[in-house]
Amino acid sequence: MIKVRFAPSPTGYLHVGNARVALINWLFAKAQGGQFILRFDDTDIERSKPEYVEAIRRDLSWLGLDWDAEEFQSKRLERYQAAAEKLKADGRLYPCYETSQELEFKRKLQLSRKQPPVYDRAALKLSAGEKAALEAEGRKPHWRFKLSAAKASWNDQARHHDIAIDLASVSDPVLVREDGTFLYTLPSVIDDIDMGITHVIRGEDHITNAGVQIDLTQALGAVPPAYAHLSLLIDASGKGFSKREGSASLQELRETGFENLALCAYLARLGSAHAPEPVLSLRELIQGFDLADFSHSTPHVDLVELERLNAKLLHQMPYEMAQERLGLDEGFWLGVRGNLKKLSDAKQWWDILRQPVAPAIEDGEFTAIAAGLLPVEPWDETTWPAFTAKVKESTGRSGKALFHPLRLALTGQEQGPEMKTLLPLIGRTRAEARLKGITA
Ligand code: GLU
Fold first, then answer.
1. Is 346 part of any domain?
2. pLDDT digits (tens, 9 = 90+) for 214-240
3. Structure confidence at residue 383 as a pLDDT band (50, 70, 90)
4. Is 159 within the bounds of a domain?
5. How many structural domains compose the chain?
6. Angle, CA of 57, 61 and 63, to the nearest 5°
7. Which residue puts its alpha carbon closest to atom 5 of ligand 1?
8. Domain containing 424: what range?
9. Which of 47, 131, 138, 167 is 20 to 30 A from 301 via CA?
10. pTM, full prediction
């Protein structure tokens, strides 16, 4: 059984990059008939907040993703504690007493000697007496995992080649802080083992972590999952996205009026071999989903392209789907959908086409003449230019003096959608009344 997880730390709002990782995990699971787990990596109790847990659930639900189980690391501390004890007993987790200033000093020294700034394992050489003396000074240990000397390698399923991390060039990672709290690495590995995660799909910023995690998984007597590391997204200015900066958060994209399906269609294809095309359900994205389609190149998030995709989706959106959201009549929807960029634009059209409009009459004599020149139906997009040409001919008006009073009378508004599209939808009866100053 394929099992994947999306493991956000609830320390901020999800941004497009997080949404892409969540979506790709979900699509991968669904395409294989597997399971998708939502796991909150909330061991950082200072920065993890219940409101972010809520926001993450809301954002994922808005995207259209569902999850088979929900887990919280903060509820599994005893399990991590037991695993840490086992690693200590096996000699793989060792106490260190250096302060951060001491470590910083060592690092600078190594760099000045042109040595890689890798932790020197000085703590491994401490005798029991030296440790006792340090503790008597009031120092508390933090605990490092003793990496094996081997290379950790895997065939990365999103990068499509073997990756090997030389663990000798990586510092033994701290797994437990001085205050006994766990850093990300140990809980993450234990959860992946306990929850039977078969594929870890995430951003490429975790590639070095994967080397460490493979070694740790093996130290815990388990078989590592498959790994897939996706290129990180960048914005138009070449910057990455970050939860802390709150840039391009899902909440913001939702409030701007993007359709979840447009965003999913975009994110599911970004950085892959296929151009994004609008879809009317996530099922369409599941069919044919393949990690092999993703490339190494760094994908740019282009909001203009997303807007285009959003509009294209609305232009195809069937009546039933729009009706659920807006509760409109079918004729109205089919008439206006081809003109929308955001679903919320439909409101403006509704007000003009389906609500009584109190016309704003600038010059009643002029609009009354225009009313008399309205052609007989059927009307289409050629009606407006033909009609205004006639009005121009008989009144001698042109430009703003011609168009502005007509728009005001017909729509009650200064601005709005193109009149050539609006006029046939307003229809002759309403148009005539409005031009005569009658609310219709
Ligand atoms: N909580 C980690 C993060 O948000 C999860 C990384 C992983 O998928 O292992 O970066």
1. no
2. 999 999 999 999 999 999 999 888 888
3. very high
4. yes
5. 3
6. 120
7. 7
8. 356-435
9. 47
10. 0.92
What is the CATH number for 389?
A: 1.10.10.350
Which tens digits make up the pLDDT trace of 234-257? 988 888 888 766 568 999 999 999
**Which mutation among 3, 4, 5, 9 tests ligand 1's pocket best, with the greatest number of atoms within 8 A of CB?**
9
CATH of the domain at 36: 3.40.50.620
What residues contact 1, with CB distance under 8 A and at least 6 apart?
34, 35, 196, 198
Report residues whose beta carbon is within 6 angstroms of any ligand 1 atom: 7-9, 41, 184, 188, 200, 202, 206
133 and 88 within one domain:
yes
The CA distance from 73 to 279, in Å, is: 35
Whether 321 is in a domain gets the answer no
HSE toward the beta carbon, residue 417, CA cutoff 13 A: 25
Tell me if 45 sits within 8 A of 181, measured CB to CB: yes
Q: Which of 151, 176, 201 is the last residue of a domain?
A: 176
95 and 151 both lie in a single domain: yes
Choose the residue to mutate in 11, 14, 41 for probing ligand 1, maximizing ligand atoms within 8 Å of C-beta: 41
